[in-house]
Amino acid sequence: MSRETRSWVWHKGYFRTVTHEEPSAAHLLDRHCFYDPSSEWYVDENDLLIPERPAQPSERALRRMAKERAAEERLAGG
Q1: Is 15 part of any domain?
Q2: Is 80 exceeded by the pLDDT of residue 54?
């Protein structure tokens, strides 16, 4: 999906910016973590094995992003 396809919802007024913050250390993860279902392991952003299950795996964030993208595509008529 192109940036232009995603930006139409802003131009139509469906979304509006409420506030803007500069990123800080609180917004950053110490280590990204993803679940690899083929191996049933957790890996980091470099595909390196993480031996212990992290407290908050990024898989939830990825699922949420996938749902948001699907919703954007439905709104765009795609």
Answers
A1: no
A2: no
